[in-house]
Amino acid sequence: MEIRRTDRPVTQVEADWLIVPVLESAELSSSLAGLDQALGGIVTRLKSLGDLTGKLASTLPLRGVTGIGASRILFIGLGTEADLTIARLDKALMTAARAVSDKKETRVAIVVPSESTGAVSHADFVTSATTCGMVGSLGQDLFRAERGRHPFAGLQVVAAGTAELDGAVERGRIIGQAINLTRDLVNRPPQEITPMGFAKRAQIVANDYGLRVEVLEQPRLEQERMRSMLAVSQGSTEPPCMVIVEHDGGGPNAPRLALVGKGVTFDSGGLSLKPTDGMLTMKCDMAGAATVLGAMTAIARLKLPVNVVGYMGLVENMPGGSAFKLGDILTARNGVTIEVLNTDAEGRLVLADVLSYAVDHGVDRIVDLATLTGACVVALGEDVSGAFTNDQPWCDTLLAAAKASGEDVWQLPMWDSYEDLIKGDVGDIKNTGGRWGGAITAARFLKHFVADKPWVHLDIAGPAFASSNKPHREAGATGHMVKTLVELARRFGT
Ligand code: BES
Ligand code: MN
Ligand code: ZN
Description:
By secondary structure, this protein is of the alpha/beta class. The protein has two domains: 2-160, 3-Layer(aba) Sandwich (Leucine Aminopeptidase, subunit E, domain 1); 181-492, Aminopeptidase (3-Layer(aba) Sandwich). Helices cover 36% and strands 20% of the residues. The protein contains 16 helices and 19 strands. Strands 7-8-10-9-13-17-14-15 form an eight-stranded mixed β-sheet, sandwiched between helices. Strands 1-6-5-2-4-3 form a six-stranded mixed β-sheet, covered by helices on one side. α4 runs parallel beside α5 (163-187) and α10 crosses α16 (482-492). The two termini are 33 Å apart. The model has no long low-confidence stretch (mean pLDDT 97). The protein binds ligand BES, manganese (II) ion (MN) and zinc ion. Residues 264, 267, 285, 346-347 line the site of zinc ion.
């Protein structure tokens, strides 16, 4: 997709679709007034007829227009200026991008208001327009002859200003590509994205974007005594691995941020086999790892002045003659003994060893991402991630980055009383704490493997993979949290 910013007046921009954001207010903005004049007052008429309300994410198409450079207009509502946030803006612009991406080879232009709008700065609006244009026009139908969405042939961001705005476009493009990389990895079938299939893609993108990459294969994992992670992999014929990618932008003495991702490339449940309905979407169980990889590419391409290391634990969880069993006692890399009560609580077993590896390799702060529990989806719904921490200031930093990125995250408690639920009978801890508080007991389990490092666990089981299409997003992988991680890394440097 060719992407560029243009200084041209809105009326002169040539495009198949001109996307025009409209606030829910009485007056017309200056660019809307110019458009109105060129179109013989139609904008004013639509407003007075009540057809152009500007309500958030409402759309109004005008086809076959004459008198301006574009042949079609899509008005997209932003709601009221006072309520505008990045989250609401993204929702509106994603809706618009999806609405005009149903045909091949479409040239699209998105109009950006001439100054800041509510709480959204001019530059952030430009970035959001670019990212949404890229993410909204890419579908999940990778293998269909007749695709439902088509990436735009060209995207123009109509925003007059200085070279700073070119940087905002570039940032939006890099983030958009990172989100689409994450989505692509998650949407691809589990027969392709096996642990080694994931590692191959990671090596390619790492080489493309100048990240250091290392793949630890099974013998190395054994040497490292990562027996908790290896147990999960036992029932599968696909060899496990751990991918490490590193961006050194901060110099040798700067602190290191670790991003750790759950990469279960298919979660059948193992011997605690999932029923078909629950297993159906379990190719998505490597979304944590895919989110880490996507974010790392953006962090490297943006040349953020920080040190960040991504650790991705990759296994397939299958039943089989050599599968790990209920009642097995696993000794994790850090020596903690784990009673296996349910082989479907496998994500925490993978993360346990990857977290302890990261801790021993001198990272200073940790964020892990995992499609870890159905319980978190029950608690917070499909569109919100759960956050859990052992260090409130660090969690506050992450929550602030999420807010600035327009992604919904809600913190859940980690009180000591939950610990009783995972106390082992014959080992130190059990891999499930029963039904109640399942997202929290899973987080308490992980806490045993982060030593005393400031750590936030993000349970992305709900938002990582969408069950149905909505006007503002395609069903399937969402790339949720890529933006937040990039923003967190940006703030880590300051
Ligand atoms: N990968 C699943 C969690 C999940 C559920 C992700 C729905 C995405 C959507 C995880 O490995 C799992 O199976 N968790 C169990 C834990 C239980 C056995 C303690 C669950 O949530 O039921
Ligand atoms: Mn599972
Ligand atoms: Zn899982």
